[in-house]
């Protein structure tokens, strides 16, 4: 644990030595945005905006993790930060993991800032007429995109703030590549995957930490129920009741097409069956293999209420926002991890109407799968769910440690050894403060470099 924390302390120290751009502004743009918003920001959002602004006014680059449960309003907080950067004479970029999510951010941001006289552009792999030239000359103030942002051809005029959404979908290297598009820009990393507090110190121990811990006032918690596959009729009648009230539903499947290897229901085949079950309603199909144009059309029709039931795969897991959808059915719920189930459930309950999430379990459940589904019916708070997930699966599984760039721990247990972790962290940070390069402790330095191997150049030559 000590080796882990000393590595993180050295990383953080290295960043603190970097010179950034202090963005002291009068916050005129953000005030104009605040007056335009059709809702009031929550206390938590206001607090986090202040924390971010304080960081951006310092001479060292901000490195902050913003965590907020599904639907807590992180995007608007990021937009306040982006407007501060623009007012200081810089450009801002936000990178999202999927085209659907990038498009959604773009539409939301574009609608809010157009009247402020600012230009926002979308940059994704499928877009033909990419606004490369206008980004390079500084005509575009805010760029929203997917990992197309880190392609070599993309150059910024003066990039001052980088926002990375749904952090866990991007590796350390992609984050670094986007930072390199600017000269030590401020960095804001956002995630809706709740991370137990203890872990955030480990996984993102090199970042400062903000959390939006309250939902907007008009949200009602989603009612979650567990069904066996044999109880479908009962469940469908509940769905029909909601549809007749003018609401919409999602039905999520683990696969796109049936596979001989796995005995699972698949979206394309089930789509045909669902049309027969609900002949009086419009049913749409959405999955990852469709062309971006098709996906967009289907999503738009669903948003506009022309499609009543959306049969889909987990492409809807992140960030799709349709307040009129009040039912989410997840088939083969036993196949999904807790954080994924929680993300999927977050697609409903976005309006004032009561929403429902029906988990459908198939076959005999293992004890762990049953425990997992019970947690979902019991808990609605993402942080509680993350702690439970962690107890059930351990840290490597929770994040895919392999991709997050963290070293493996042999005997320490992050959930059990919380106090030890905090103590190791304190000692590690003290040590790096007194000896940033560890030059007096060559053996320890060697041990740390070996522990972190080639993951990161921890002791950068400053």
Percent of residues in beta strands? 5-15%
* End-to-end C-alpha gap: 26 Å
What's the alpha carbon Rg, rounded to whole Å?
A: 23 Å
Q: Please, what is the average pLDDT?
A: 82
In short:
This protein has 462 residues and is α/β, with parallel strands linked by helices.
Report on this structure:
The chain has 462 residues and is α/β, with parallel strands linked by helices. The protein folds into 2 domains: 8-212, P-loop containing nucleotide triphosphate hydrolases (Rossmann fold), CATH 3.40.50.300; 223-379, P-loop containing nucleotide triphosphate hydrolases (Rossmann fold). Helices cover 42% and strands 15% of the residues. The protein is built from 18 helices and 13 strands. It has helices spanning 2-16, 28-36, 43-56, 74-87, 99-113, 132-136, 172-179, 197-203, 232-244, 267-277, 292-303, 338-345, 367-378, 382-393, 395-399, 401-404, 418-434, 442-452, and strands at residues 63-68, 91-95, 120-123, 142-145, 159-164, 186-191, 208-212, 223-228, 248-252, 283-286, 309-312, 325-331, 356-361. It has a 7-stranded parallel beta sheet, sandwiched between helices. Strand 10, helix 11 and strand 11 form a beta-alpha-beta unit. The model is unreliable at 397-405 and 457-462 (pLDDT under 50).
How are the elements arranged and paired?
Elements: H1 2-16, H2 28-36, H3 43-56, E1 63-68, H4 74-87, E2 91-95, H5 99-113, E3 120-123, H6 132-136, E4 142-145, E5 159-164, H7 172-179, E6 186-191, H8 197-203, E7 208-212, E8 223-228, H9 232-244, E9 248-252, H10 267-277, E10 283-286, H11 292-303, E11 309-312, E12 325-331, H12 338-345, E13 356-361, H13 367-378, H14 382-393, H15 395-399, H16 401-404, H17 418-434, H18 442-452
Parallel strand pairs: 1-6, 1-7, 2-4, 2-5, 3-4, 5-6, 8-13, 9-11, 9-12, 10-11, 12-13
